[in-house]
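dumping this here before i forget
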Amino acid sequence: MVIMPQADSLFENSINRLFSGLGIGLGMLSQEGTVLSWTAEIARHLGKSGSEVLGKPIWEIYPELGALALGSAFSAPADLPLAEVWQGLFQAVEAQGQSLSFSGCDRQDEEGKPLRISLSLQCFTFSGERRMFVISRDDGEWRGMPRDLIDPETGIFPLSYKDKSASFWEYDGQRDRLRANQAWCARFDLPCDADFNYTLEDYLLRVHPEDLKNLQSIIDAFMQDPGREYGLEYRLKDAEGAYVWVFDRNVSQERAPDGTLLRCVGKITDINQRKELEFSNDEKSRLLRDVLDQSPQYIFARDAQGRFILANKALAQFYGRKPQDLIGMRLEELHPDKSEAKRFLSDDRHVILTGESLLIPETNYTSPSGKRSIIELSLAPFKVPGLKEGASLGFGIDITEMKRVQRALYEEKDRLSVTLRSLGEGVIATDTAGRVVLMNPMAASITGFDEREALGKPIGQVFRIRYGSDSHPLSDPVRDILAERRIVSSSADSYLEKRSGELREISERGAPIIDEEGEVSGAVLIFLDVTERRAMEREIEKIQKVESLGILAGGIAHDFNNILMAVLGNISLAKLNVDESQENYSLLAEAEKAILQAKRLTAQLSLMAKGGADPRKESISVRGFIEEACSINLRGSNVGYVLDIAPDVDLLHADPSQMNQVMQNLVLNAREAMPMGGTVNISARLVSITRAETLPLSPGPYLKIDVQDSGPGMHPEIAQRIFDPYYTTKSRGSGLGLTVSFSVVKKHGGCITVKSRLGEGTVFSVYLPGN
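structure:
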């Protein structure tokens, strides 16, 4: 078979399987009448080879087409051009929806032998294009004996005819005897010689019992009716006992004047291959039907008028009917919700008219019982022979339950998301490889990593925890959790290094995530930034320590002061008995002086034990007492100072002498922290303290004075003890200056805090209630 390049090989394979051995010629034409394919058999029938006709109009190859069109379903005027005749024929065949046949065309094959050809035309859709089949048949071969098989002397066909797929048989009506060619008789285990050696009864014994009655009735009718012809398919048992499908037809007959059958010749053809293909197609159809009915999807096809031409079991059950009941019904008659039906038909028409597929992710589907389902619907154009406008093929999936579960999951996810967002603790979840899979906003705030950046990263790059401020961050904080499947908690001094490098003190705990099967699927870390809380705890602890030490020091000072008074009295009496010119007198005077200094120290301890003397508050200039303290303590030194006092800071209601003492202690401490020289930066601002602050203060307005040096800074352990009585890092001094300052500020209703990092200097912050 010769095929044009645009023709699909599926066409050739299908044609060869279906029409092999039947003596039928086939050609495929375009809508414009151009020949696209041409089988060898049709080339023989019409006397044109494939190379001569491919790409040419059919009316040039078969000019009789115009004449045959006259009187057919399409009546063509005699003077109509053949191209227009073809267009009319195509439209007539397409509109009729079935084949249009022409017969009685006498032609010659390539060898010049006469042929009597009949043609039929059939429209169809191939690869999305409208096409037409031209089917040719040699009526001469079916109506009379082929001339090349007839013995010119005897007038009968030779018994040596070797074609195993077909045979010409001859029946002698007077003797009731049959004969056929040797190959055929051998295949079906029939006696065969030139003397008509087997009877019709012998032959009928090999016919399948289910087909015998029908064949017998046709033979009986043929014997009685001189003008009758027949052609019949039935099964015949071969020599191996297997039944084979054959097509049997008489091709000529001779009768006596009274109508008695004298002689009949017929042709019998092996069509088992074609029947097997038909059965295979039937099986495929049944299999396809079973597949359609087993599918939980709604599968259907509707024509342009909304009539069902296909419906599977699932769709029929949705409507409470059987699949065959839906065929031919209009959707508007069947569907309970008319607005839905109208929408579905609109979608069908769109698909049919545009030829484009359509996907509808969600649409409502109401059953006759009133139950509403959510359907995912896909529609595609569907070409059906005989339907000029085509149809729409649909696949619907009931996603109601899936949507319900999806909504439940979304709601659960929303609840989880809201919960995680509302938590004041940071939450990070990882997979079994230690990669971040979840992170709430608080965790992002504490670590400094955005959730989108953190997802997929190793946990050690995001949650950089260290146990001790001087230690290195752990590379994998969840390793022990995953390996040991246990809950872990942090030590008292856990620090998190933020993305910016800042250290934050945290409390944290971690636990493995166990799935329903008891397997570890990851780990979760929950942590809280306790930097300010721990700082406030330390401030409270510091206050309590100062108070307790002050009480102790005050008790000791009271008793010690009594002892000093006794010693001082005795020294005073001893001085009365010693002349001033004597050496002992100067020794007693020095001892008396030392005792008086000790008395002043015990007085200071007693004052600290009471929390300082009650302040005598009055309005004082903030700039004034700060500048006075700087002038007294920095004059003549290598340390300067810079003041930054906000414009709204003016007066403070406080004890002038006590405030001067506090400021002098802080400036002096800053100067001593910079032995190589430097600058003390002092700022004063009005601030508002809220309940969210981590300071031991009541909410309200406060004056905040920061005294910052550029010295080497302090170790955290030193900073924690800097306000303890008698604690000092200097070679000189009593260690009471900052302790007294702490007590004085507390007596005024404020507090002092310190922040210091090694190499970055120290900042003392004084908070005093605003006016």
